[in-house]
Each structure stands twice: as C-alpha cells, then as structure tokens.
C-alpha cells in the first residue's frame, strides 16, 4: 500500500499522461453541468450562474490587481478565465442537482464539479509550474527528517580548501542527506519568522565530520521554505551532487525571507520589518552556533528565486562580508510592492531618498565588489524578468563582480530554478571550497 501511494505521489503534473487526462475529465464534467435536458435550467439557472461567475471573477481581478496589489507581478488573464470556470462549476452544483433530485444525480454532479476544479487547478499549475508532482500538490514528500537533538557534535573535524583534497568518505556513509526543521530565533531583528528547513548532506553525518560550506537559500513571494523541497526537488539535486563528490555538498539553510504567506517585506530593514538583519545576522549566527560548518565567510553563499533572487543580491551587495557569493534566479531588478510610489509609502513612509539605498541596481554601480562573485539564472521565455536579470548582470559586472549569466529553457517557474541550481552547483562548490 505504501509503495502504491509513493508511486501515485510521484506522478508528474507537468508532463506525461496525467496533465492530459485531468483536463479531459474536466471537460466531461463541464458538459454534464452545462447540458441537462431541462429547459428551465438552460434558460435561467445556467445563465445566472455563468453571469455571477463572471462578475465575481472581475471583482477578484480588480481587487487583486488594482486595490490590494498583493503580488508585484500581474496574474495572467488566462488564470482568471480558469478561475471563472471553476467558480461557475461550484455555482452550478445545486441547480444541476435540482434538475433531477436523485442520489445518482447528486453524486455525478459533485464528481463533475470536482473534475472541473481539478482541471482548473491543473491548467493554472501548467501556467505557473509550482507543483511538479501529485505529492507536491498534496504537500507530501518522502524526505527523511530529523530533530536537532539527533545531531551530536563531533570531537574531530576535517577542514581544508578544497575540501575534496583532504576528505575520504568512510564506509557506511548514508546514501542521501537528511532534512531538519528548526526555528531560527530573530535575536537581532525581532521579526516573526517561520521555521527554516535545513538540508544536511551525507558527509555531515561522518565521524570525523568535514566542515562543509553553507548556502542560505530563499523562496519566492508568496512562498515558504518548504517550496524548495516540495516543488524545487532540492533534496534530489543535492543528493545527486553528493553522490558524485563522495558525500560532500553544501549545508543548505532554507530560511524564511518574508515572514508569512502572503507577505512582502522587500528583504530590507524598513517599517515592514528588519528582514535584512534577520538574514544577514540572525541566520548566520544561529547556523554557526548550532551546526558544525565552515565559519569562513568565503564558504558562505546566499541564493534565491524571484523575490528570493532579488533578496540574495540585496544581501550580497549590502553585506559582502557575510555573503561574498550569491545566486540570483529570476530576481526583479529592484524590491517592489507593485510600483515605486507604493513601495516608498509602505516601507519608507514616503521618503523618496530611501529606496536607492536598498536597490541592488544602484548599489553595485556606486561600490566596488572585487571579492564578490555570483551567478544569474533566468528562463529564456521569462519575458518580464529576463531583461531585468540581464540588466542586473551587466550592472554587477561593471561593479567589478565576478559574475556569470545562465539562460535556461522555460519561464518563471521551478522548472527553471531547479535546473539553475543543479547547473550552478559545481561552480558554487568550487567557489565555496569543496572542489578544486
């Protein structure tokens, strides 16, 4: 039974037969909801439900895009069209059952509405590939998890650069890494932060223990630290790298860069919270105090996707002594709440002189960062962010940073970010002192 559940959870929602079958089932469900024989239903109930769905969706669009402006990027119109279909399906459930008040009609109608909603969700997921598998959509993963008290300190440690030159994998080394959940206290920042998810590679469990480098990784907005594991396949990527390097890989601390979902504190110290202090002071301090890792800043990097990519660059430019290495994947060229005025008002109380001090596009141009290095990754089809990432790459290069730009197939989604991390890991390993 467990094996069967595992296989179901690993079914792809982006490729293969499932993302084809689910929309087809949704079409069948839609046909059942729209075309009963009763004329009164077709002439009264159905038009009213469709009109109500259209009105509610337009109201949602205006609220999200014009009033609330929850997300800095507009949501595609195709998504709102799919939402309208889902709303209409829900509104048609009761009228459709009343056409023929039987148990059979009720069951089929409920299943038809569910099929439509699943098809809508599948369509949105294909538009924004956030859930690559059934397990990811249901919040199921097969990652081994442990508690902090299961990590005894080692009396003997191994250090060196590159670490591979002084490391020999002992017998009995685990085949894969493990994940630990930990609350990183906001001692200096005072913000409300969610728990961090920490990947520990196989070599971390060896005795003597090699002092591994650290990658602080950030999710997008909206997002959670868990996204990198459920959607980004972080464990699989790091385990694959570790197998090719005798169990060695960075310790990855996926920290909370927003404090909630949805939330957008812009990854800086402002009226919205001292997020920069949390990520540049609290997270490194806790990591050094609780994990046996390489404390040398040269062995530390920060990276992220979308909001997290911008955040990584902000931290690299504002705190180069903490994070001299960064990975910016599809990050906007400035922190934003949708537009410059809204950002200035919310974060800085209308002080128009404040944003440039937090804008990574401006910072590299006025400073020198000869000791800093970074990688920019963006999807080839990411029409909105590819120009911004390329602009940031050239600005960082002009500031003296050792930077690289990688354009991979895809848009603004985990398909790009997972590939980007996998491809950049060898460079990171060399930069952070694992490989020569």
SSE topology:
Blueprint: H1 2-9, H2 18-34, H3 39-68, H4 77-91, H5 93-99, H6 103-127, H7 134-137, E1 145-146, E2 157-158, E3 178-182, E4 196-200, E5 209-210, E6 214-218, H8 227-230, H9 234-243, E7 251-254, E8 269-270, E9 273-274, H10 275-290, E10 300-305, H11 307-318, E11 325-329, H12 340-348, H13 355-358, H14 363-366, E12 373-379, H15 386-398, E13 402-408, H16 414-432
Helix pairs in contact: 2-6, 3-4, 4-6, 9-16
Jot down its keywords.
single chain, alpha/beta, 436 residues, Rossmann fold, 2 domains, two-stranded parallel sheet, nine-stranded mixed β-sheet, 16 helices
Describe the structure.
With about 425 residues, the protein is α/β, with parallel strands linked by helices. The protein is built from 16 helices and 13 strands. Strands 1-3-4-7-6-10-11-12-13 form a nine-stranded mixed beta sheet, sandwiched between helices. Strands 2-5 form a two-stranded parallel sheet. A two-stranded antiparallel ribbon has the order 8-9. The chain has helices at about 1-10, 20-35, 40-70, 75-90, 95-100, 105-125, 135, 225-230, 235-245, 275-290, 305-320, 340-350, 355-360, 365, 385-400, 415-430; strands at about 145, 155-160, 180, 195-200, 210, 215-220, 250-255, 270, 275, 300-305, 325-330, 375-380, 400-410. The model has no long low-confidence stretch (mean pLDDT about 90). The protein is globular, with a radius of gyration of 24 Å. The two termini are about 45 Å apart. This is Esterase. It comes from Nocardia rhizosphaerihabitans.
């Amino acid at each position: 039974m467990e094996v069967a559940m595992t296989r179901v959870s690993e079914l792809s929602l982006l490729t293969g037969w499932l993302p084809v079958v689910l929309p087809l089932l949704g079409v069948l469900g839609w046909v059942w909801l729209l075309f009963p024989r009763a004329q009164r239903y077709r002439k009264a109930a159905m038009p009213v439900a469709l009109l109500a769905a259209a009105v509610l969706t337009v109201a949602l669009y205006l609220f999200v895009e014009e009033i609330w402006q929850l997300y800095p990027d507009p949501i595609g119109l195709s998504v709102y069209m799919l939402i309208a279909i889902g709303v209409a399906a829900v509104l048609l459930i009761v009228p459709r059952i009343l056409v023929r008040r039987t148990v059979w009609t009720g069951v089929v109608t409920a299943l038809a509405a569910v099929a439509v909603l699943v098809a809508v969700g599948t369509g949105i997921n294909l538009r924004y590939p956030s859930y690559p598998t059934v397990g990811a959509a249901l919040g199921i993963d097969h990652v081994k998890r442990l508690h902090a008290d299961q990590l005894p300190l080692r009396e003997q440690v191994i250090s060196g650069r590159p670490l591979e030159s002084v490391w020999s994998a002992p017998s009995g080394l685990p085949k894969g890494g493990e994940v630990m959940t930990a609350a990183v206290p906001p001692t200096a920042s005072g913000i409300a932060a969610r728990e961090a998810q920490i990947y520990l590679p196989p070599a971390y469990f060896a005795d003597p223990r090699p002092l591994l480098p650290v990658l602080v990784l950030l999710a997008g907005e909206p997002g959670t630290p868990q996204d990198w594991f459920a959607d980004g396949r972080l464990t699989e990527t790091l385990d694959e790298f570790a197998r090719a390097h005798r169990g060695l890989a960075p310790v990855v601390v996926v920290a909370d860069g927003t404090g909630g979902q949805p939330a957008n504190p812009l990854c800086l110290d402002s009226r919205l919270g001292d997020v920069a202090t949390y990520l540049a002071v609290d997270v490194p301090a806790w990591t050094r105090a609780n994990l046996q890792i390489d404390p040398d800043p040269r062995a530390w990097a920060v990276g992220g996707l979308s909001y997290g990519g911008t955040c990584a660059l902000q931290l690299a430019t504002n705190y180069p002594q903490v994070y001299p290495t960064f990975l910016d994947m599809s990050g906007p060229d400035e922190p934003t709440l949708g537009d410059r005025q809204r950002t200035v008002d919310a974060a800085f109380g209308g002080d128009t002189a404040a944003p440039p001090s937090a804008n990574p596009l401006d910072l590299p141009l006025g400073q020198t960062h000869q000791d800093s290095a970074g990688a920019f990754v963006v999807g080839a089809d990411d029409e909105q962010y590819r120009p911004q990432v390329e602009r940031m790459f050239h600005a960082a290069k002009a500031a003296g940073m050792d930077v690289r730009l990688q354009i991979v197939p895809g848009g603004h989604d985990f398909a790009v970010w997972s590939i980007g991390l996998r491809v950049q890991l060898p460079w990171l390993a060399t930069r952070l002192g694992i490989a020569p």
